[in-house]
């Protein structure tokens, strides 16, 4: 697996620090072939540093990830928006946190681990269950090993490798969680592909863990927005059932870009997935969008999408009425 660690610094005259809550993400904006391309990445560094670290996994056909791996050089500039996201550690974390991650879902966990170890020396315990397809896919493998070795009473890491151990399933999750004997007020943080995170959520619910103690973030593994659409798609925009207009969304365009270019009254503000002002309901069709973003799990379940990050994979109908 090819990964690139991007280390970003403020290019202003008086560089400051990157302040956020562990687990939140930033949106990076690069000019690629004359067009701004946006991609959201979870911070893996601890808050309050003058440097922001994110990990970019190379995605075949991904515009931003390919640019990051092949073209970015020290001194290049990117626009950074954020922080964003409701998936983050509490301002005053409990004495014990349990992390369950798969693949690149470990990146926000690294920020939590680093912050927990640095801010509370001698206190607090963090336990991580981390699933990957093989040893070569494990992100932060060396650092996780070193941190667990340096603080064995505060950090424990359990790896599950599909090619050796089989796929992590409900029974495996249940066996691991029940073996922890966690404190009553322990908080659980889950991040990875939606199918596995749903399995973990069901296990925790079955074990009687209150919903307010479980925090989760799911992501998709599709290529960056702007590359998954290979053919023009028709977009119809409605407002409370009244047709506003129809436009063709070209490959590489977002729903918002196409709508604005056609003069449609598309709601928007930040254009990088941070604010939610461009949230609309998907009435029909299929839309792909970068994850993570500012939509809550409930909003996604209710059929809402962000037009600034969404690209149609079929003919779509959107309702732009206020949610």
Ordered list of secondary-structure elements with their pairings:
Elements: E1 3-9, E2 25-32, E3 35-42, E4 51-57, H1 63-70, E5 79-84, E6 96-102, H2 106-119, E7 125-132, H3 141-150, E8 155-161, H4 162-165, H5 170-178, E9 187-193, H6 194-206, E10 214-219, E11 233-239, E12 242-249, H7 255-261, E13 279-284, E14 287-289, H8 297-301, E15 304-306, E16 310-312, E17 316-319
Helix pairs in contact: 5-6
Description:
- This protein has 323 residues and is of the alpha/beta class.
- Helix content is 22%, strand content 33%.
- The protein is built from 8 helices and 17 strands.
- It has helices at residues 63-70, 106-119, 141-150, 162-165, 170-178, 194-206, 255-261, 297-301, and strands at 3-9, 25-32, 35-42, 51-57, 79-84, 96-102, 125-132, 155-161, 187-193, 214-219, 233-239, 242-249, 279-284, 287-289, 304-306, 310-312, 316-319.
- The strands form 5 sheets. Strands 8-7-6-9-10 form a 5-stranded parallel sheet, with helices on both faces.
- Strand 11 (233-239) and strand 12 (242-249) form a beta hairpin.
- It is globular and about 60 Å long.
- The chain starts with a strand and ends with a strand.
- The model is unreliable at 221-228 (pLDDT under 50).
């Amino acid at each position: 697996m090819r990964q690139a660690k991007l280390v970003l610094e403020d290019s202003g005259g008086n560089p400051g620090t990157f302040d956020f809550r562990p687990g939140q993400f930033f949106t990076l904006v690069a000019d690629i072939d004359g067009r701004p391309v946006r991609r959201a990445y979870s911070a893996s560094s601890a808050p309050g540093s003058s440097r922001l670290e994110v990990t970019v996994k190379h995605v075949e056909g991904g515009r931003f990830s390919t640019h990051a791996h092949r073209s970015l050089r020290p001194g290049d500039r990117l626009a950074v928006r954020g922080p964003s996201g409701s998936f983050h550690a509490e301002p005053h974390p409990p004495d014990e946190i349990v992390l369950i991650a798969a693949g690149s879902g470990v990146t926000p966990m690294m920020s939590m681990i680093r912050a927990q170890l640095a801010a509370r020396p001698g206190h607090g315990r963090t336990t991580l269950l981390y699933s990957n397809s093989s040893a070569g896919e494990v992100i932060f493998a060396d650092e996780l090993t070193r941190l667990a070795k340096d603080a064995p009473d505060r950090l424990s890491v359990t790896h599950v490798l599909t090619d050796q151990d089989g796929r992590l399933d409900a029974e495996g999750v249940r066996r691991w969680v029940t073996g922890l004997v966690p404190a009553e007020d322990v908080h659980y943080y889950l991040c990875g592909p939606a199918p596995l995170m749903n399995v973990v959520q069901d296990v925790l619910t079955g074990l009687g863990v209150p919903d307010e103690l479980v925090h989760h973030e799911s992501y998709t593994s599709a290529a960056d927005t702007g590359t998954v659409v290979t053919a023009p798609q028709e977009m119809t925009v409605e407002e409370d059932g009244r047709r506003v207009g129809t436009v063709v969304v070209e490959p590489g365009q977002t729903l918002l870009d196409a709508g604005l270019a056609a003069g449609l009254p598309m709601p928007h503000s930040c254009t990088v997935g941070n604010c939610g002002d461009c949230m609309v309901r998907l009435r029909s069709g299929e839309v792909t969008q970068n994850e993570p973003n500012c939509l809550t799990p409930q909003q996604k379940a209710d059929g809402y999408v962000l037009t600034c990050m969404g690209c149609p994979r079929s003919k779509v109908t959107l309702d732009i009425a206020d949610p």
